[in-house]
From TrEMBL:
Belongs to the ABC transporter superfamily. Macrolide exporter (TC 3.A.1.122) family. It comes from Desulfohalobium retbaense (strain ATCC 49708 / DSM 5692 / JCM 16813 / HR100). It comes from the Bacteria. One of its GO terms (molecular function) is ATP binding. This is ABC transporter related protein.
Length: 229
């Protein structure tokens, strides 16, 4: 196994409700190697998004430790986490969070601008990323005039524009028809295969899951190999 990008040691995540506590992750021990591609399956409410949010440093474990490149994320300041997210992680969420008042190119150029690149450089990178997802011709179009599948591909372009070492995707084919979903799946597969992007994808879509090298099921707070593995 390549050196792990992520290591989870006895990670627990407990949400406190008004009346009771909900244990979503219950002592997860897991490692994700560089270049790995992992699909996480599981019933609604089983904790898939929670798992992804922990990996994305958007939330913290209740106990246990989560290491990125061998470093305990609990030791990172908020600023260090923000730098990590912007420089190494790409996110694709089901509701892609594109900014409707901007063009596709401007949306995809946003991470580069936030990282301090000039407008021209950020837009060059954005144009290349849009080409990669087959949307090179849609750059000047307002993002709210794109179809659902095009928006999802634009969100992937935005997630990968700065060549993150890790891509975290939550239901990237949710709301897409089968053909468009397949196209998004092919794209994710190529990013992993050709660029070596480490990939963790949460999905209900078994066709999509089958494209990745490992399939895991989140059940009763634990991650276990899915039956098809
Ligand atoms: N901030 C929170 N506070 C309290 N409970 C939460 C919070 N976030 C998530 N939960 C609960 O934790 C459980 C797991 O949620 P999560 O969103 O991780 O599930 P999921 O597997 O991604 O579900 P789905 O497939 O429906 O998106 C759910 O019961 C949810 O209601």
């Amino acid at each position: 196994m390549n050196s792990p990008v992520y290591e989870l040691r006895q990670v627990r995540k407990v949400y406190s409700g008004p009346a009771e506590q909900l244990t979503v992750l219950d002592g997860v021990d897991f490692a994700i190697a560089r270049g790995d591609s992992l699909a996480v399956l599981g019933a609604s409410g089983s904790g898939k998004s929670t798992f992804l949010h922990l990996l994305g440093t958007l939330d913290t474990p209740s106990s246990g430790s989560l290491l990125f490149d061998g470093k305990d994320l609990a030791q990172f300041s908020d600023r260090e986490k923000a730098v990590l997210r912007n420089s190494q992680l790409g996110f694709v969420f089901q509701f892609h969070h594109l900014l409707p008042e901007f063009t596709t190119l401007e949306n995809v150029a946003m991470p580069g601008r936030i990282a301090g690149k000039s407008r021209a450089e950020a837009e060059d990178l954005a144009a290349a990323a849009l080409d990669q997802v087959g949307l090179g011709h849609k750059g000047r179009q307002q993002v709210n005039t794109l179809s659902g599948g095009e928006r999802q591909r634009a969100a992937i372009a935005r997630a990968v524009v700065l060549s993150p070492s890790v891509l975290l995707a939550d239901e990237p084919t949710g709301n897409l028809d089968e053909r468009t979903g397949d196209r998004v799946g092919d794209l994710l597969f190529r990013l992993n295969d050709e660029l070596g992007t480490t990939m963790v994808v949460v999905t209900h879509n078994l066709r999509l899951a089958s494209l990745f090298s490992r399939q895991y099921l989140l059940h009763d707070g634990r991650l276990q190999p899915a039956a098809s593995e």
